Every structure is written in structure tokens, then in C-alpha cells.
Amino acid sequence: MILNRLSGSLRRHDWPSVVVELAIVVIGILLALQVDNWNQERREAAEARVWRAQIIEDLERTRFELTVRRNYNAQALVFAEQALAGLQSSDPLDPSQSWEVVLGAFQAGQILPFQLTGPTFREVQNAGGLRRVADSETLSALISLYDVSAYDFELINGGRPPYRDFIRQLTPWAIQSYIWSADCQRDTIEEASGLTSTELTSCAKPDLDSQIQEALQTFRSNPTLLPKLLGRMSQLRVSDNSMSNIIKGVDELLAMFEKGAGYN
């Protein structure tokens, strides 16, 4: 309709009408573009809120997983110290004492693998939307967590410690089978989050006294076991410091996200 009137005005050389009709067309186009921009901004803001919530959820899960593994490693260190005293001594031990040493030596090699990934962070990073979910300071801390801290975590905690395979090679299969089938490692599901935590426990002595005494003698007589155990204990201690620092960093990040709750 407007274009028809504009065409007629041009044929009549009615320049005032031409100007008016052109102005109406331009204003209509500008309004349409502005409405489209508003809609796009609303869609991007909604997407950013979803991303932000998912990143926070990832951080909370990461904190839980790191805490579980820090506690797990602390339990492994306690078992290692339990074994160390018995291995450094040549005093005879009764079956219950021998079991504590054998179990402690085996549990010291247990691991609970975990990778610090941040799936939502990677998704948003690949989509080029990081600056829509947080301020520059928060983003810097987030990038540091999933790049620098993740590398440090893998360097310290990644892979299988040499001690783990070594102690399994020395432990009689009957004892290993018992440890796996008995309540020597326990999983607990938290009702609130549905997440699973795992802990090492001092399970009851099996009716395998001869194998236990044999294992103790094998452990004590092996010249390589004690140095490997000490190395494992050192690694567990360093791992504890590393995870403690990462958990502190996650807590600080969560506080930063909460402080910037109105961002975007």
C-alpha cells in the first residue's frame, strides 16, 4: 500500500508526499530492526542465564567430587601409616594385627579416578559466549580452574601410582577377592543431591590366617615395598594440598558467581 502511494507520488512529482512516504518506510524498517534486536538480546540473555546456572551446577558437582576424593585419599594415607609401622618392625604379630598391616598396605594403593573437565564451561567457550555469563575477573578464575588447575590436578593425581600395581602383585588372590567382595570400600548415595561418595573402611578380618601371615612375611621381606609405600604416602600428601587449593578456588568462584547474580 505504501509503495503504491510512493509510486503514484513519484509519477505526479508530489515531492512532499514522496518525502513523507519514504520517511514512513524508513521508520518502519528501523522499528522492525529494533524489535528484532530486542528479541535477539532477550534470547541471548535467556541462554546466558541457562549457561550460568549450568556452570554453577558444574562447580558445585566439582566441589563435591573433589571433596570425596580428598577424603578418600586421606583414608588411604591413614591405611598407609597403619601398614608402615608393621612393615618397619620385625616383631611377631597376631592374626588381627597382621590383617591390619596387610589390609593397610593394600588400601594405601586404592585410587578413585576423576577428571576436572567443566563440560558447560567448554560448551560456552566453544560457542564464544563466556563474556555473557560473568565479568572478566570471574572468567579469569574460571579459565584458571579448568585449564591451569586441571593440568596440575592431572599431573599430581592422574594415572595409576606405581605402588598400586606393585602391592597387588604381592597380595594373595584370596585376600584381594575378599577385599573386593567385603565391605572394605563403601559407596553412599546422598539423598539431597543423588551423588555418590566412596570411602575406604577397616573391614573385618577374613578366615584366611595362613594367607595373611604369608602376605605379611612377603611384604616385610621385599626390599622394594617400603620405599614404594613411602613414595605413595608422599604423593597422597601432595595430592591433599593440591585438592585443598582447588576446592578453595571453587569456593571462591561460587562466591563470585553469587556476588554477580544479576550479571546479564
Give your account of this protein's structure.
- The structure is a single chain.
- This protein is mainly alpha-helical.
- The chain has helices at residues 2-12, 15-88, 95-107, 119-126, 136-157, 162-170, 173-181, 209-221, 225-259, and strands spanning 185-189, 196-200.
- It has one domain (2-259).
- It is 73% helix and 4% strand.
- Strands 1-2 form a two-stranded antiparallel sheet.
- A hairpin with a 6-residue loop joins strand 1 and strand 2 (196-200).
- Helix 1 (2-12) runs antiparallel to helix 2 (15-88) and helix 2 packs antiparallel against helix 9 (225-259).
- The model has no long low-confidence stretch (mean pLDDT 87).
Observed structural traits:
264 residues; two-stranded antiparallel ribbon; mainly alpha
Q: List the uncertain runs.
A: none
What sequence of helices (H) and strands (E) makes up the elements?
HHHHHHHEEHH
> What order do the strands of the largest sheet run in, or round the barrel if closed?
1-2
- Structural class call reads mainly alpha
* Main beta sheet: 2 strands, antiparallel
From the spread of the alpha carbons, the general shape counts as rod-shaped
Average pLDDT, to the nearest integer?
87
Radius of gyration equals: 32 Å
The fraction of residues in strands falls at: under 5%
How many E-type strands?
A: 2
How many helices does DSSP assign? 9
Helix content range: over 70%
Chain-wise SSE layout:
Layout: H1 2-12, H2 15-88, H3 95-107, H4 119-126, H5 136-157, H6 162-170, H7 173-181, E1 185-189, E2 196-200, H8 209-221, H9 225-259
Antiparallel strand pairs: 1-2
